[in-house]
Amino acid sequence: MSVDWVHVIMALDQQYTIQSARQANERGELGDWVADFLASDGSDNAVLGEQLRDEYPLWFGPVRIGFDRLHRLAGPPDQPTLERLDEDDLETVESMEESIDEGWTPPPFVATWQDDHLMLEDGNHRAESVRRSGDDSYWCVVGVDSDHERRAAQAAIDA
Predict the structure, then answer these.
(1) CA pair distance 73, 132, nearest whole angstrom
(2) Fewest CB within 10 angstroms: 9, 95, 121, 145, which?
(3) What global pTM score does this model have?
(4) Could you tell me the residue range of the domain that residue 95 belongs to?
(5) How far apart are CA 145 and CA 53, in angstroms?
(6) Judging by beta carbons within 10 Å of its beta carbon (0-12, 13-18, 19+), is residue 4 exposed, middle or buried?
(7) Helix axes 124-132, 87-101, angle to 10 degrees
(8) For 19-51, what is each residue's pLDDT tens digit?
(9) Which pLDDT tens digit goes with each residue over 48-70?
(10) Sign of CA dihedral 38, 54, 71, 59
(11) Tell me, what CATH number does 88's domain have?
């Protein structure tokens, strides 16, 4: 991923902010917000957005979640992760970290409640750049199947 692509993401992210996610949540449209965000040119992952909206009928947030509570798909070995970052990923993370240090606020991460844990579905690069900037938590929107799962997810977030 080139540095120019990172700047495209950051420019588009101005539409998909923590505040716009809050507003979508208040209107009961957070699932649509997630699908639209993932379909945007910066994310370019409309298939995932549609899948998440279809599989997770209830969304809440944004809520601040500690990185130790999120199962991440990519990241450093000392964090919950399934695979390591490659060189292109590291370049993206470093560019985003610099932008955060210069005042950029990334959009919220997208997570889902799966079995007994929160899975970070979208935002792995942002999560790593935020972590490297010194934070141990960040804003997430969370998809769940039921009110019961929402309570379980909230309990895991609050633990």
Answers:
(1) 17
(2) 145
(3) 0.84
(4) 3-158
(5) 10
(6) exposed
(7) 50
(8) 999 999 999 999 999 999 999 877 778 889 999
(9) 999 999 999 999 999 999 998 99
(10) positive
(11) 3.90.1530.10
